[in-house]
Automatic annotation (TrEMBL):
The modification N6-(pyridoxal phosphate)lysine is found at K36. Its cofactor is pyridoxal 5'-phosphate. Belongs to the pyridoxal phosphate-binding protein YggS/PROSC family. The keyword Zinc-finger does not apply. Residues 25-230 form the Alanine racemase N-terminal domain. Keywords: Pyridoxal phosphate. This is Pyridoxal phosphate homeostasis protein. It holds the Pfam family Ala_racemase_N. InterPro entries: Ala_racemase_N (IPR001608), PLP-binding_barrel (IPR029066), PyrdxlP_homeostasis (IPR011078).
């Protein structure tokens, strides 16, 4: 079995290869290590191999790991799960990024509950890019209103968009989903120049990160390819 350090190296190589093939600068794509369900010891191992950004989906589990790893300097915590309104206070207190915001009510609470002495919380709006019945995320048509609202919130920094395409599609279908998300971001940047940096596309996972990078991903969220299959 390969070690976590080996896996980080091979995923990093995949990212670099895809980034260069797309004619993009190597530093333009970041690796988010999705560590949900993995023990703190695995994150420590990834940290020793140079990984700093970790993505978690379950709040209590994440808070336990954040506490267990408080001795490590420079960790960056990303919340990537669905967000219930009774969880926003703890998310605003403990995370650097939130990728799954899909309604204004949640964004307002995160901004109100973010301590103003902390840096603004980085936000991505999640889009249900293939209009799947069971998936979180807003519809593309709802984005302008959301961006206009979230762009006003003092303690948030609107970084961009996040999506998880319908995994049943073939490569061409996945690529077209990523492409639609990238188009939507470009349009929003043009229409709302003051809403935030809008410099981020959080898209691509273990099996499709190359396709996402070809379409402009700036964060790929990778779990299985780093840590192995989840229980
Ligand atoms: C679990 C998860 C991932 C990682 O998926 P892998 O296929 O294991 O790489 C990425 N994004 C989100 C939102 C997730 O919940």
């Amino acid at each position: 079995m390969s070690s976590i350090a080996d896996n980080i190296e091979s995923v990093t190589r995949r990212i670099q290869k895809a980034t260069l093939a797309a004619g993009r600068p190597v530093e333009s794509v970041h690796l988010l290590a999705v560590s949900k369900t993995r023990p703190a010891a695995d994150l420590r191992e990834a940290f020793a191999a140079g990984q700093r950004a970790f993505g978690e989906s379950y709040l209590q589990e994440a808070l336990d790991k954040i506490a267990a790893l408080a001795d490590l300097d420079g960790l960056e915590w990303h919340f990537i799960g669905p967000i219930q309104s009774n969880k926003t206070r703890q998310i605003a207190a403990s995370f650097d990024w939130v990728h799954g915001v899909d309604r204004l009510k949640i964004a307002r609470r995160l901004s109100e509950q973010r301590e103003p002495q902390l840096p603004p919380l980085n936000i991505c709006l999640q889009v249900n890019i293939d209009n799947e019945a069971s998936k979180s995320g807003c519809r593309l048509e709802e984005l302008p209103e959301l961006v206009a609202g979230v762009g006003q919130l003092a303690n948030l920094r609107l970084r961009g968009l996040m999506a998880i395409p319908d995994p049943q599609q073939d490569d061409q279908g996945l690529r077209s989903s990523f492409h639609r998300l990238a188009d939507a971001l470009a349009e929003l940047r043009h229409r709302f120049p003051d809403a935030g940096p809008l410099d981020t596309l959080s898209m691509g996972m273990s099996d499709d990160l190359e396709l996402a990078i070809a379409e402009g991903a700036t964060w790929v969220r990778v779990g299985t390819a780093l840590f192995g299959a989840r229980n």
